[in-house]
């Protein structure tokens, strides 16, 4: 038996181990799950070492003399203090940095791309719809306008959903339901694809039933 | 006793698999018969459900397993139509002249590989055949490794082998960098800042392909394969909206519906969503690969899920009618 | 010291990224570059913290001889095996000519990735397919208009995204075939709903970010 065959058998047995959970929780699954947890943690640990800590911090500081990077290393080291009970509070400093920087960047990009650009896109689509094109497009673009506006009205909870406002909000929920239905349809497609990948591996690489 | 049944079924399955011819191909007639049998079994489930006997979840699992396994041995031709969003993606790639620099961001891991790896293969093959220069990177640590697998695969294609693309000249793998969207943000001013060396520890400045590549203004197109965060959303928010580069994407089906607003607002230049996006992308780029072999099992599984939804709702309608009659 | 300094750090980091968005010139772009580099490094340490916390927990389990201590031992062995493989391959790659990467096909690290990590992680997500199917049979009922719309939309997407849809509706004009229904549904009603959600989330993100930067929201500093 050569190495490739052993590797394939190992991969197949691990695949079946996780799949056995579908029948019921069992020891075989638990063992595979433990290996998965350990291997995943180890994978992330070592890749972050080589790709980030070595490549940016070590090369930057030691080979290129960019001592400003030491600030990041110090903050990172403070993060590890969380492992030690009494001085664990020091980890709040790097955490504050991460949260602050993320908030600053996210605030701007979400506002411009996900709010302003989308409002602009909706208005633009409506203008295009009335500027020409076929019926199929016209209806579609009007659907986007109505769906977006009514959907947003549904999310406005400062006014009670009653009367005309409530009716418009209800139309909004219908659009949201269609959206969730589409997402569900795509989720089914995705889940089936993932299982397909594993079944294909078992049938092709392991059992050789498929060429 | 139940315990022994399970082991007996498992043993029987092993024996059947052992004695089956390899590879196993079912004739078209047998394929039709198997499909009809599957249909009859679903009708039987419908009858049972309407009578008020919900089948066990393991029987449902069995149906799903069968619908994904059996079509691998069948031979039905399934025509593929390319959707508008995949066409936009392909058109954007087709417009790139030879020598264009394309940044390929591999932001996914092995669980999403069945959907995204075929797209990666089709893209790499297309890029090499059309002399596009590919700069690979990943915001997910597994991404660059998935890219290596894709390159290894397409380099075996005779047409590409004849072209003999060279590492560092025709393609380069910059690897992974932590920092999520901050990596994209930093690349807006300097690629080198985030990737001072490639995965082989070669200095950025010593890689011929990267000569003159300072930031996004030196990139003609970004192709992003994404299965979540960080991924297409972040590329659109920063690379497209801030730095003005064109981004086309291949997404997992779970993520794809949420990025449609970017398509509509022309922030995203094309999208291949999920497995259907993958086989359409293969069709558009004329690189039939793994996704094209998944068409039949995917179709069967969708049909079974739709059948289960219909069966469940048919039972609901029948029970409504019964309760109404009871009230009358 | 425990609260004030983190609040100042949050404010400075947040304001730096807001300012550089409007003024992408010196000195703000310099701050942005430095902070982005720091973010990458701190992000890596955060992953290390997670992995090391897991190891700490497992070691505690073993030392206390908890009832599942062999599982903890297995986690540690798995962790160490890939870390050692990656470390050896990485150092080997630095010194070899021509240079190699720890990710290259044929390395021990790649062996773990291909034959252990990939099957385990892929299957873990793949088995969700079974539960989605089971839920479709047992839970998805068209009990009202909203639920019916959800199911009808899911139906058109599922049937329209596979060739069977067009096979069944092939007798209809091209525009009326199932794939076209799915295209239309994704491009218009789905876009409308997603856009409403997207704008709502964006406004929420902006307000939450402002609260964090200004120190009104402090939950991340607790614990």
Give an overview of the whole structure.
- The complex is a heterotrimer of chains A (211), B (328) and C (223).
- The mean pLDDT of chain A is 94.
- By secondary structure, chain A is mainly alpha-helical.
- Chain A has 6 helices and no strands.
- Chain A has 3 domains: 1-65, no CATH class; 73-120; 133-211.
- The two termini of chain A are 21 Å apart.
- Chain B is of the alpha/beta class.
- Chain B has 2 domains: 2-76 and 294-327, no CATH class; 84-292, Rossmann fold (3-Layer(aba) Sandwich), CATH 3.40.50.
- Chain B has 14 helices and 6 strands.
- In chain B, strand 4, helix 10 (232-240) and strand 5 form a beta-alpha-beta unit.
- In chain B, helix 3 (57-69) runs antiparallel to helix 14 and helix 5 (113-129) crosses helix 6.
- Chain B starts with a helix and ends with a helix.
- Chain C is mainly α and 223 residues long.
- Chain C has 2 domains: 4-129, no CATH class; 142-213, no CATH class.
- In chain C, 76% of the residues lie in helices and 0% in strands.
- Chain C is built from 9 helices and no strands.
- In chain C, helix 1 packs across helix 2.
- The longest helix of chain C has 36 residues, at 28-63.
- The radius of gyration of chain C is 26 Å and the shape is extended.
- Chain C starts with a helix and ends in a 10-residue tail after the last helix.
Architecture blueprint of SSEs:
The complex is a heterotrimer of chains A (211), B (328) and C (223).
Chain A: H1 3-19, H2 27-63, H3 70-80, H4 92-130, H5 135-154, H6 163-206
Helix pairs in contact in A: 1-2, 1-6, 3-4, 4-5, 5-6
Chain B: H1 2-19, H2 28-50, H3 57-69, H4 84-94, E1 101-107, H5 113-129, E2 133-138, H6 143-154, H7 158-163, E3 171-176, H8 181-187, H9 191-194, E4 221-226, H10 232-240, E5 247-251, H11 260-264, E6 271-273, H12 274-285, H13 290-293, H14 295-327
Parallel strand pairs in B: 1-2, 1-4, 2-3, 4-5, 5-6
Chain C: H1 4-22, H2 28-63, H3 69-95, H4 108-126, H5 128-138, H6 145-160, H7 163-168, H8 178-187, H9 189-213
Helix pairs in contact in C: 1-2, 2-3, 6-8, 8-9
Characterize the largest beta sheet of chain B: strand count, sense, and whether it forms a barrel.
6 strands, parallel
Q: Which percent range describes the beta-strand content of chain B?
A: 5-15%
Distance between the termini of chain A: 21 Å
Order of strands in the sheet with the most strands of chain B?
A: 3-2-1-4-5-6
């Amino acid at each position: 038996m050569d190495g490739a065959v052993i590797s394939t058998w190992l991969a197949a047995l691990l695949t079946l181990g996780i799949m056995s959970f579908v029948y019921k929780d069992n020891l075989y699954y638990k063992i595979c799950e433990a290996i998965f947890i350990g291997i995943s943690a180890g994978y992330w640990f070592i890749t972050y070492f080589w790709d980030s800590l070595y490549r940016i911090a070590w090369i930057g500081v030691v080979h290129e003399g960019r001592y400003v990077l030491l600030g990041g290393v110090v903050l990172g080291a403070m993060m590890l203090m969380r492992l030690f009970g009494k001085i664990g509070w020091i980890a709040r400093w790097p955490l504050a940095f991460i949260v602050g920087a993320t908030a600053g960047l996210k605030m701007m990009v979400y506002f411009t791309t996900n709010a302003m650009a989308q409002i602009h896109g909706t208005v633009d689509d409506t203008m295009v719809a009335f500027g020409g094109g076929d019926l199929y497009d016209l209806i579609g673009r009007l659907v986007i306008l109505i769906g977006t506006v009514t959907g947003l009205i549904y999310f406005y909870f400062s006014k009670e959903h009653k009367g005309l406002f409530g009716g418009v909000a209800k139309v909004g929920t219908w659009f949201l339901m269609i959206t969730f239905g589409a997402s569900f349809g795509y989720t089914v497609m995705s889940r089936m694809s993932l299982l397909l990948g594993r079944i294909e591996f078992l049938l092709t690489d392991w059992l050789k039933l498929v060429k | 006793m139940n315990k022994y049944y399970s082991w007996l079924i498992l043993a029987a399955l092993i024996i059947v698999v052992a004695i089956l011819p390899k590879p196993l191909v079912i004739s078209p007639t047998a394929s039709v018969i198997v499909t009809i049998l599957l249909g009859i079994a679903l009708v039987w489930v419908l009858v049972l459900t309407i009578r008020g006997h919900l089948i066990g979840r393991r029987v449902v699992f069995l149906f799903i397993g069968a619908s994904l396994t059996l079509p691998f041995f069948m031979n039905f031709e399934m025509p593929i139509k390319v959707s508008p969003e995949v066409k936009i993606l392909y058109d954007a790639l087709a417009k790139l002249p030879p020598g264009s620099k394309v940044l390929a961001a591999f932001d996914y891991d092995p669980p999403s590989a069945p959907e995204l790896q075929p797209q990666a293969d089709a893209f790499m093959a297309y890029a090499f055949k059309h002399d596009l220069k590919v700069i690979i990177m990943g915001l997910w640590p597994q991404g660059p490794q998935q890219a290596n697998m894709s390159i290894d695969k397409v380099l075996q294609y005779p047409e590409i082998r004849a072209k003999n693309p060279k590492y560092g000249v025709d393609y380069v793998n910059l690897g992974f960098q932590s920092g999520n969207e901050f990596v994209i943000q930093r690349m807006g001013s300097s690629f080198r800042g985030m990737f001072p060396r490639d995965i082989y520890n070669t200095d950025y400045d010593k890689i011929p392909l990267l000569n003159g590549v300072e930031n996004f203004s030196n990139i003609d197109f970004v192709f992003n394969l994404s299965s979540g965060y960080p991924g297409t959303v972040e590329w659109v928010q920063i690379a497209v909206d801030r730095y003005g580069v064109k981004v086309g994407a291949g997404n997992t089906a779970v993520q794809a519906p949420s990025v449609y607003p970017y398509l509509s607002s022309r922030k995203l230049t094309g999208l291949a969503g999920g497995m259907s996006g993958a086989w359409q992308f293969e069709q558009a780029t004329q690189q039939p690969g793994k996704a094209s072999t998944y068409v039949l099992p995917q179709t069967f599984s969708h049909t079974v899920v739709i059948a289960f939804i219909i069966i469940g709702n048919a039972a609901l309608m029948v029970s409504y009618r019964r309760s109404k009659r009871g009230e009358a | 010291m425990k609260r004030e300094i983190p609040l100042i750090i949050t404010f400075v980091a947040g304001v730096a990224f807001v300012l550089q968005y409007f003024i992408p010139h010196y000195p703000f772009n310099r701050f942005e570059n430095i902070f982005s580099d720091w973010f990458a490094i701190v992000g890596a340490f955060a992953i290390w913290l997670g992995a090391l916390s897991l190891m700490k927990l497992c070691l505690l389990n073993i030392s206390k001889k908890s009832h599942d201590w062999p599982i903890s031992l297995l986690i540690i062995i798995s962790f160490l095996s890939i870390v050692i493989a990656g470390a050896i391959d990485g150092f080997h790659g630095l010194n070899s000519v021509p240079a190699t990467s720890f990710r290259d096909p044929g390395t021990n690290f790649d062996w773990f990735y291909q034959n252990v990590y990939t099957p385990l992680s892929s299957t873990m997500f793949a088995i969700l397919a079974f539960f989605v199917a089971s839920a479709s049979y047992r839970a998805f009922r068209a009990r009202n208009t909203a639920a019916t719309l959800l199911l009808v939309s899911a139906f058109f997407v599922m049937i329209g995204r596979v060739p069977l849809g067009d096979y069944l509706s092939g007798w209809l004009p091209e525009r009326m075939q199932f794939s076209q229904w799915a295209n239309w549904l994704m491009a218009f009603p789905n876009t409308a709903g997603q856009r409403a959600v997207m704008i709502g989330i964006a406004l929420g993100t902006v307000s939450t970010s402002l609260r964090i930067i200004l120190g009104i929201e402090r939950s991340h500093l607790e614990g």
